[in-house]
Amino acid sequence: MALGFYGEALRVGVSAIGGWKPFGSDRLITKSKQNVLYEIDNRPALALYKQYLGRFAGELPASGLMFPLELCIGDDKQRVLRALLAVNEEAQSITFAGNVPEGVYARFMVGQVEDLIEGTRLAAGESLQKLGTFKPQFSMLVSCNGRRFVLKQRIEEEVEAVREVLGSQTALTGFYSYGEIAPTRVGGNCELHNETMTITSFSED
């Protein structure tokens, strides 16, 4: 199903922010196939990933949702997140919820609950800024199901953070997804994101 909005009086502000923090330096993906990562810097991906996770390595694959992979893709070097789905001890590989192309740089990410909520607050503010002087009348929130796993009982704070920024006059709706599609900057290409809050705000004169 597709739904289109149009009109000279329509203003749209879009933002996609995760709130995760870098956990190590950029590394080159040297072997992968679609969404399965085999080697980073010519080293087995799973072994390197476990090295970063430390005590959380024994809780894989569930604990992997707290440590997504960030890719630097495209000619404009957009940063997008990939959520871990499964690990293969025999192949020393990691399966993600989206393609991880060979030849791109990636880095591990980590985040506390407060970081993710602050990311949501920043996303709301960015969608508002793109409307200029116009006030949003309606906002669509799409948050990743992986974020819900990490935030647990504090998940409602995502919506509360958006409400604080956009104000009580803005109608809010949304849902949880297994992937979000949005540009990371104005004029950029739409990309697949994981573990990211995407907000689209609408205003009509």
Explain what the structure shows.
The mean pLDDT is 92. 21% of the residues lie in helices and 39% in strands. Helix 2 packs parallel to helix 4. By secondary structure, the chain is α+β, with helices and mostly antiparallel strands. The radius of gyration is 18 Å and the shape is globular. It folds into two domains: 102 residues, 60s Ribosomal Protein L30, Chain: A (2-Layer Sandwich), CATH 3.30.1330.10; 90 residues, no CATH class. A hairpin with a 4-residue loop joins strand 6 and strand 7. It is built from four helices and 15 strands. The strands form three sheets. Strands 2, 3, 4, 5, 6, 7, 8, 9 and 10 form a nine-stranded antiparallel beta sheet that branches. Strands 1-15-11-12 form a four-stranded mixed beta sheet. The chain has a two-stranded antiparallel ribbon with strand order 13-14.
Main features:
60s Ribosomal Protein L30, Chain: A, globular, 205 residues, 4 helices, alpha+beta, nine-stranded antiparallel beta sheet
Q: What topology does this entry show?
A:
Layout: E1 10-17, E2 21-22, E3 27-33, E4 36-40, E5 43-44, H1 45-53, E6 69-73, E7 78-82, E8 84-88, E9 93-96, E10 105-110, H2 113-129, E11 138-144, H3 145-151, H4 156-166, E12 171-177, E13 180-183, E14 190-193, E15 197-204
Parallel strand pairs: 11-12
Antiparallel strand pairs: 1-15, 2-10, 3-4, 3-10, 4-5, 4-9, 6-7, 6-10, 8-9, 11-15, 13-14
The span between the termini is 27 Å
Q: Radius of gyration, Cα only, in angstroms?
A: 18 Å
CATH architecture of the largest domain: 2-Layer Sandwich
Query: How many H/I helices?
Result: 4
Write down the overall mean pLDDT: 92
Q: Approximately how much beta-strand content do the residues carry?
A: 35-45%
- Please tally the β strands and state the result: 15
- The share of residues in helices is 10-25%
Main sheet attributes: strand count, strand direction, barrel closure: 9 strands, antiparallel
Low-confidence stretches: none
